[in-house]
Amino acid sequence: MNNKQLFPFERNRYYVGKLLTSADFQAEQTYAGNKRRFLNEMLFGAGVVCGLGVYALDDVSLMIESGVALDSWGRELVLDNSLVRKLSTIEGFESVESDRVSLCLRYDEKPEQPVYTVNRRDQEEYEMNRLREGVTLMLIDADKTVMPEPPENEFFSRMSLFQDDDYAVELSIPAFIPCGSRVQMTITVTKLSDRALPFSMECTLQSPALTAQDGSHETKISIADVTPMQNEQIVREVWLVAQERPAPDSMVIAEPGRVDIRLAGQRVLISEKMTARAVVEPTDAESIIERELARVSLESREMAAGEAYICLAELKLQRTQNNCMIESIRENGVKQYVRTSVGEAQRRLLRTCYEEKEGAPKPVRPAVPAAPGENVPLVPRDPLFATGQCEIPLGHGTRAGRVFYSDEIMHGLGKGDVYVSLGFEYLSEDPKTGQMARSVIYGSSELFPNEQAPIPRAELAVKVMNDRGSFMVAARMQEETNNALLVLRWMAYKIPAAGDKLESDIKGKRIAAMPPTIVMGTRDSRYFNVRFHNMEPCTLTYTLTEKGSGEITTDGVYTAPAREGVYEIHIACTDDPLISTYAYAVVKKINDIEPEKAGEE
Hints:
Layout: H1 22-43, E1 47-51, E2 54-56, E3 61-64, E4 67-70, E5 76-79, E6 83-86, E7 100-116, E8 126-141, E9 156-163, E10 167-174, E11 176-178, E12 182-191, E13 199-206, E14 210-211, E15 218-226, E16 233-242, E17 251-254, E18 259-263, E19 266-268, E20 274-277, E21 279-281, H2 285-294, H3 298-304, E22 309-319, E23 324-330, H4 344-351, E24 385-393, E25 403-405, E26 409-410, E27 418-429, E28 436-442, E29 458-465, E30 470-477, E31 485-494, H5 503-506, E32 510-514, E33 517-521, E34 525-527, E35 529-533, E36 540-544, E37 551-552, E38 557-559, E39 565-573, E40 580-588
């Protein structure tokens, strides 16, 4: 198949009396093959599925293990047996020019089984009866190898802070951020020229819906007197915390007077305000990633597809006057892999063999810091208020005195005491602008006789279910109405419980598990110690964040379950639940695990 264009798809249409020729049977094969390859390309992409390891048998010979790969055309590259080849016999050996070459695998098909042709006219006497699908090895100069790149998507929001012939400064941040999660913002300085020109930058970025580690909405970036080489990049990464409430118009702002860039000591004038979109929305990171990747158009995916070969390894060659020898083989960073659902269960098991780097940020909660003086952002509190619209169907010709009820409404403020206020929402023409405008009347609509609001008179009541985090609305009609729907606007306010403290009261106070991660055997028991910072020791509450993750006593003695895994323990001050941290138990089925030293950082 030399043509990569697989679509539009056309299949045979059969009917009584249709004369079938070889072209019809070829069309049948083409349709089925293209459909399969199209699905391979769209669902899996290009890369190695299994096997295809590369080894040097001697200075001039290679062995490639059996395995399977998919190329960017969706074709299956199957090497059913291990293959041994001398370097000089591989296709492309004579044309490579550098000492770094890529060993690649390419789809190939060859005709076989010659048969005598019957009723031939202008055909050959013999035709090949089969096409055998196979693979071919090839060598390409490493700097000429085209690696597959992911298609452009709108996951990152980018902002160019500065660019000239010498430097380019770019900010990037995910365009969509889950409520209450941590997010990484990156500043990248790229040297474009070969001139030795010192660079420095002092920048203060504003993020109304995101907070820095100190709890403020400003992030300071400092890069002092660096002189990178051409094409070298200097990267600064900052972690921010999104607010708990959605912010559909949120952005990161760079004001002109707060971006100070100097080249060789000379200040560069920044005259325009720059912004990068950073929307905070009520969802999770996994949903955002899946959504943004799925938004990529078919044309973009096709344009991003690589060449029709798979890179297996990079070879470093040592050339002599009469020979060329293999000096080293590198597969890491060269070979791309296809992720399939077949090995997902094994992946989950293998992940338990790795511990997270201490202090590494988690997607939602801040990790325990390694150093006592490191600042940790507070876990955002639950929202204090929420609003929404409630619609109660009335039917036609509703009489006075009849009572209607809404469905149960979740206000989103969690369990506890909540006050709910109701108002009549309607759409009417604004006499000042002459346009339709939305208004809400809280209380009695009779006090606004000039409004001529298209809302019926009704008595309202609210039933709040504190233990369920929800409420219901009841409306008793005080007059007969023909309105089919009663539209209400509700406002819910969280009433702080006795003893609750504001974040300002606990700022600087924190606890840290010592150590934050413990490796232990199944059914083993370990004690989670806690260090207090800027506060007196207090009573702690230990809870497990998921079912089936073991047992923990009120004193902090954790007993692991019978199955392997990584389990999370939430530790909080009993009187001040906002002061909390997380510890992790890595449970393995091994007999001898070296006990970790108490207090080890």
